[in-house]
Every structure is written in structure tokens, then in C-alpha cells.
Write a sequence for this structure.
């Protein structure tokens, strides 16, 4: 038995989510077969050749892999700075901590501005 209330209590909401399936391998195969069919149709004289450069350029942008050179260099630099800051704090005290904070903030600023 429920007590009467002045405020309406919210009821839970049901969400109807239909799952979607994306297969990148199938997409790439379909794109390649469409490209080959368009080349065959062009050889038979059904299509103009001006359509092909656009499709080749669009396909080359999707298959490009990002480079991760910056990650490989950034992690050792961060570890080196933290180690140097800790060792400097043990030997020199607070002055090494202040220098570490100054250097790390300058490096962070340069990284955000994409100078380094």
C-alpha cells in the first residue's frame, strides 16, 4: 500500500536500442569491388574517366593509419622528468621542486601550443 504524495515520483524509462553491426572488412571489400566494377565499366566505355580520381582519393584517406611517434618520445621524457624531480628533491629540497614545476609547466605549455 502506498501513501498519497504531493509530488509525482518518476518512473523508470525503457530504452529500445537496436544493435547495429559494422564490419570494416566487408566495407573495404565492397569498396574494392565497386572500384573494380567501375574500372571495368570504364574500359567498356560506359563511364567517363573523370569519376575515378575522386574515388581513389577518398579511399586513400580512409585507409591511412595514424602515426604514434610522439607517444613513444613523450612517455620517456615524462618518466625522466619525474625521476629527476624526485632525486633533486631528495638532494636539494624545495628549490629542486620549484625548478621541476617551472620546467614541467614550460614543457606543458610548449606541448599545448604544438611547438615541440
Amino acid at each position: 500500500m502506498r501513501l498519497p504524495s504531493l509530488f509525482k515520483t518518476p518512473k523508470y524509462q525503457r530504452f529500445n536500442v537496436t544493435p547495429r553491426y559494422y564490419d570494416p572488412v566487408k566495407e573495404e571489400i565492397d569498396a574494392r569491388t565497386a572500384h573494380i566494377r567501375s574500372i571495368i565499366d570504364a574500359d567498356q566505355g560506359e563511364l567517363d574517366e573523370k569519376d575515378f580520381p575522386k574515388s581513389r582519393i577518398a579511399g586513400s584517406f580512409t585507409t591511412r593509419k595514424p602515426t604514434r611517434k610522439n607517444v613513444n618520445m613523450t612517455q620517456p621524457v615524462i618518466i625522466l622528468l619525474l625521476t629527476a624531480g624526485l632525486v633533486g628533491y631528495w638532494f636539494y629540497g624545495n628549490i629542486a621542486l620549484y625548478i621541476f614545476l617551472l620546467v614541467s609547466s614550460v614543457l606543458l605549455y610548449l606541448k599545448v601550443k604544438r611547438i615541440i
Observations:
- The first helix runs from residue 24 to 43.
- The chain has two domains: 24-62, 69-112.
